[in-house]
From TrEMBL:
Keywords (A to Z) from UniProt: Signal
Positions of the DUF1553 domain: 561-823
Signal recorded as keyword: yes
Superkingdom of source: Bacteria
PANTHER family for the chain: CYCLOINULO-OLIGOSACCHARIDE FRUCTANOTRANSFERASE-RELATED (PTHR35889), F-BOX DOMAIN-CONTAINING PROTEIN (PTHR35889:SF3)
Residue span(s) of domain DUF1549: 159-373
UniProt keyword Signal present: yes
Designated name of the protein: Cytochrome c domain-containing protein
InterPro entries in the cross-refs: Cyt_c-like_dom_sf (IPR036909), Cyt_c_Planctomycete-type (IPR011429), DUF1549 (IPR011444), DUF1553 (IPR022655)
GO molecular function: electron transfer activity; heme binding
Organism (species): Blastopirellula marina
Domain Cytochrome C Planctomycete-type: 38-92
Stretch forming the signal peptide: 1-20
Amino acid sequence: MMSRGIAAALLLAFVANCYGQDKAHFETDVRGIFKKHCFHCHGEEETVEGGLDLRLVRWMVEGGDSGSAIVAGKPDESLIYQRLESHEMPPDASKQLSTEELAKVKRWIGAGAKTARPEPESLGDEYLISEEERAHWAYQPIKRPEVPQVKNAAAVANPIDAFLLAKLEEHGHQFNEPATPDQLVRRLSLDLLGLPPELPWSSELRASEDPAAWNKLVDKLLTSPHYGERWGRHWLDVAGYADSEGYSDVDAERPHAWRYRDYVIRAFNDGMPFDQFIREQLAGDELVSSPMNDLSPEDIELLAATGFLRMAPDGTGGAVDDAQQARNDTIADTIHIVSSSLMSITLSCAQCHDHRYDPISQADYYRFRAVFDPAFDWQKWKNPNQRLVSLYTDADRKAAAEIEVEAKVIDAAVIEKRNEFIQTTFEEQLAKLPSEIHELARTGFAVDAKKRTAEQKEIFRKHPNLNVSAGSLYLYNQKAADELKKMQEEATDVRAKKPKQEYVRALTETPGQIPTTRLFYRGDYAQPKQELTPAGLTIVRQVSGLPEIAVSSSSLPTSGRRLALADYLTDPKHPLTARAIMNRVWMHHFGVGLVTTPTDFGALGDPPTHPELLDWLADEFIKSGWDLKHMHLLILTSNAWRQAIRNDAALQAEDPDNQWYGGARLRRLDAETIRDSLLTISGELNTKQFGPPVPVMPDTIGRIVVGEENTNAGRPGAVVDMKGEDLRRSVYIQVRRSRPLSMMETFDQPAMSPNCDQRRPSTNATQSLLMLNSVELIDRSRKVATHLSHEFPDDPAKRIESAWRKIYCRAIEEQELADAQAFVQSVAESLKTQAAYQANGEKLPARSADEEAFAVLCQVLLSSNEFLYVQ
């Protein structure tokens, strides 16, 4: 067997030969390696280790405490290579250079340790960004490219097709044939609504002679209220939406977070321009025009929008080991959510040190954090309850005050009547005792028990029946106690008429309170360093020329920093925002983004498969007024989206990951769509929208299910009748970080820690076992079977055909019908031998064997891949 040393030497020689000795440059080949492994100790800190700064080649030649680090053309004699090859440096074993990286360093030194251009005389305080880093695709201005010309122009429905087809034709391929109308309608409905289609849609599309029929169907679905529920759920993923605080095992509930969820759904349904959507989420509170103590409905929505900045885990409402650390963790997670969702960058990697791969300095991170510090202010922190904003209006307060006056009249009457009853009862009890103690007892009864004389106390100790009080009155006079209770209930009923006090979970600033932001040395809040002012990324400023974010606003009572950030991110010159959003939209329509790493447009992320198309989409998005529905229509009416599942073996061999889009991808339904589809098919879906979440609870065997536990029932698993609330869409089910719904967790519903950048569907045995044994699925299957049996009582074949159409959204084939009939007959004959399906005297079984056999068929269909996947 070849030794590791020989293998490494051969690899070094191979790499050197492949790259060519005369083409290696520090900036293109080595700087990234040193930045990743070495700059932290040799360049970033105020004091460099060993006096050796590796940021410039000239400084390496000059050397540090141990002399020159590089001998140009002689890697084996170069101190830096010797230390790297011997693994003496870096000292951390987990951060050693890979064999490939070491080969690049050796090749570069061997080629003369050249630079691509003259180096600066010195480096100031400004973070050094190389020309190569500035040239990275994600930081370039968004420019609308020319739509390419293709050979098969008939296959182009809109520019999207031209960009994709150009690459296919470049490799000698074409689009796949279109999917069938049934497949397309099911795909469209699940894509836009997250629900199976209505049965007439396919037949209407097939029968229509209108060439615009497909476009009209897309438009129709975009106006459905279910559209916002489906696409709002996508955004809630990247926003990290949860109905609980997380952070610790306590995982306290967030009773008012649902207002942000409803805001998102309404925004999508209303077609809110996406730049406005961003502005309101980042700075809705700075757009409020009505007084905070008398908010208009419009301003309540603006405050609800800032729930976007309140979705990060927040344990500061309870006991934590390090309260200040918990505060800063919440801010850090919020920054991660904002940067990953709106900019598709790994900004959090620069929290403790300069980014190891991308041109983002630690100072950049804290300048970005400075935008949010006035609202969060970790040193004058407000816990979650302190940040709630009351929705009481002046009218509510006036009504509540008037009702309270009415209730207090009853309270006064209760007190007067109670005192009367107590005094009367006391006199009745006193009359039973010797007259010589009456005067002393009356005097003692009239004062507080603690102020009684010793003689008075002795009387009440000796005669406890004299201790008549509000709490003991019922023991003497039940009728009087009942009368008082009725009066108190009247006061309670009056107070119940007060407008309900409700709140919104929001982020707001205290006017005039702008804290100082400092860089934390190695991310440690206990080691603050230089003061920093708000700013975007240095790389973006250098490439785009966008102005910096102002320290404060002269037109607002608050700092205005978040509003300025929103304007900055939605400026057409910003290179990241529109690209990031369009890449996500593409990902949800096609199953994978044009950039397959949706939260990392940096050096470690994948480059776009079709960069010109991504730029065209981003530019079109901006020019359309950030109209998301316009972009949906373009994508969904393209021939590329309407292709059948790829079935070209030759194309698959050349493009195994389908990055050329020569056919559709087979995609597994996500967790929410599976549950919602089951409810729709069984006819049980409750389409009620908005409001507080439907609760979840553990059942008798510990699974988390939809339901409200009846804590007064005295037995585990007893539930409260949900009156159909448990049948609502999954987007309205409570998202408890510590209590993920078992069924949806099995099908990869993500944990919000702090958010979900991309759903990653898995295939495992647990999913099949759940579909086989789930009580919920068995119940759904029986309901489908019962409904179809009532619809076709005398035609078993029609029942089966209808089940196929309802579950698979297509007509059944002749052989499938024959097989299904044989299956139902076989199961029925087996069940008829079991006692549970036989009559007991005159008592008929709960379900006949034939009914149950058909229900089993329905369960088979609902458990099958054809239902769980979309073509």
